[in-house]
Every structure is written in C-alpha cells, then in structure tokens.
C-alpha cells in the first residue's frame, strides 16, 4: 500500500504479466486477441510503504462459453471459459490443493491459509484477495462504454432499448440487447447471432461473488466465505477512469437490492500483450477476432498450465473427455473429485447433492437470485447438468 492506502496497481499488474510470460504459453493463432484475468493474495505493508507481498495463485484467459445445447452432463467440460471465470475456478483449485498439502503433510504450514477450530479453513489474518482483469468485465460494467462507442447505425437501432420494447426486468437480457440500459442482468455472449447460453455476464458473476464469496458452494463446505478486497482493471486511459469507476461500482457491488462487500476498484493503463488494443496497435489495423483458446494456470500445482478449447482440454477427443488425466482441472467433475479426496462423499451422492448440503451458502444464494433478490432473473444451471457422482463417473471412464 502507498501512504494513501491505495494498492500499487501497476506494480501488481507487472508481477501478473511476468507470471503470464513465465507460463511459456503461446497462442495457437497469434493475431487473435484475448482477455487475461488473475487472482492473487497479498499482505499489505503495515508501515504505509508501497511494498506489498504478492502471490499470484491463478491466471486465466478467454472470451468464449458453450451454448446451452452443448453443455456437458457429467461435469467434464467448462460451461464458461471467460478469463474471469477461468481464473476464479483456478483460484478455487489452488485453495483445495493447498488444503490437501496441509492435510497430507502435517509439517506443511501454509503461509496463506489457516485451519479453524470449527473444521473449516480461512485465509490468515492480514492476507487479502485481489483480482485483475485486463479489460472491463462483460455485462453491466461495460454497457455504458459500449453505448457511448461509435457503432454502425443499423446495429445501434437493433440493440438500443430506446427503439425497441424493454424486456422483463426480472429476466436476464441477452448479450447486448437493450445495451443503453444499466443495472440489468445479462447473459453471454454479446453477439446477437450467437446461440443462447446459460452463462451470466462476468459483471453479474463478480457481483454474486461480492455477496456470497468467490469460493462457491462446493468449497464453502471446507472454506469460510472469501471476498475480493481489490479489483484492478487494465487498459483504461486515465482520463476515462472516473466515469468508468462509477459504472464498475454500480455493476460489481452497488446494484439495487444487493448486500455486497465493497471491493476497492482501481485502474491501470498498462495493456496486456494479447489485448485487442495491443494487437491492433502492432498489426496497424483493428483486431476483431478473439481466440478460441483459454489458458488455465494454477500456482504450486503438479501441472501448472493447460489449454482449454470449447470447454475441454485442447486435443482431447470426445471419447476420452471423461478420463481423469484428460479432464480440465477446473471442471466440475475434476473439482468434485479433488473435494472428495479431502472429505469423503457418501455413496451415490451427486455433485448437486453435495453442493446443496452447504445450507448457509445455498440459502443466501436463493435469497439473492429468488423473487425480491438483488439478482432475481439469474439463469441458473441446476440439477440437469450437476447430477453426476464420483463413483459413477470413474466407472464410466473405464467403459
């Protein structure tokens, strides 16, 4: 922290960029842009000096998600591969793996986590959680920016709420429909010609994490609620930061009806090397094509990185997608198996069953997305895509 209490955003982002460079990842198609997100842990200095101890625990890139018609039934693939979602799921994986290191080797004492008397884990006193994303999160945080940007008149007329009926306020808008409206839920993707999905925008998801904690329902059975203390957003020119801060505050924690934790939001003008702006500058023309790939990197993991395409590990044929070594490590099934190694799951209890047993978390989520809740209208991916169990999937893997 500096003397004013502000996070040294540029220094932290440079650390994240350095971590990204050392992953050795090279996009298969180098002239396609993507988005980078990261979760990091840090200890603010106690004497007001700018120094901050930072540990990057996960990186994610990506801009894609699966249409509803292609969602996996056994938890073997990712529904949403946007950078923020990949990084968050990577952070959950790091937390579970750190707990595994603590429990499997009694001599292993985590510098970042501690075990509590109630049997759950929490971050240590003085440790805070931060998140970085290389551009404004899709959805409500960026709709006003999109509305103000130059657009083709025909497309503007198609999408502008002023010239078409406004949808039901309790139903999520699709992508950029009614883009001039703010404070509304939106699904991905933004393109009008893309097939529909059940994936909510990253703005909406971050808003939910700021209410419930980013650890999710499964990890809530092991970990106390974890909240993002600082959010750093990249690629924002200094003169635009005050107005964009108002949008981000509204979208990420201050929406009507939310009882959210308030993260400190800061900006940096530093550009990610594979951002649209960076590539457009280097190519000398506007780069409008986004990469199909997602990088997932997790600190301290036996397999530091993997590449995901269309929800699955790159190069894995469909007939092998349920094999344990070939699962994306942040898929529902892979995380469920890791959880089961830490806390035995009763026979034939499904992923959905186990998540529902986090009663306090689920009650808070229902109040949030149910009638009268601040995120009422949320598209919920429920039992149809979560009714798989660990033993059944292991048997199926060997068939």
Automatic annotation (TrEMBL):
First and last residue of the signal peptide: none
PANTHER family on file: AT07585P-RELATED, EUKARYOTE SPECIFIC DSRNA BINDING PROTEIN
Domain of life: Eukaryota
Pfam family, one: A_deamin
Entry GO terms, CC: cytoplasm; nucleolus
Biological processes annotated in GO: adenosine to inosine editing; RNA processing
Ranges of residues in domain A to I editase: 58-365
Protein name listed in UniProt: Adenosine deaminase/editase
GO molecular function: double-stranded RNA adenosine deaminase activity; double-stranded RNA binding; tRNA-specific adenosine deaminase activity
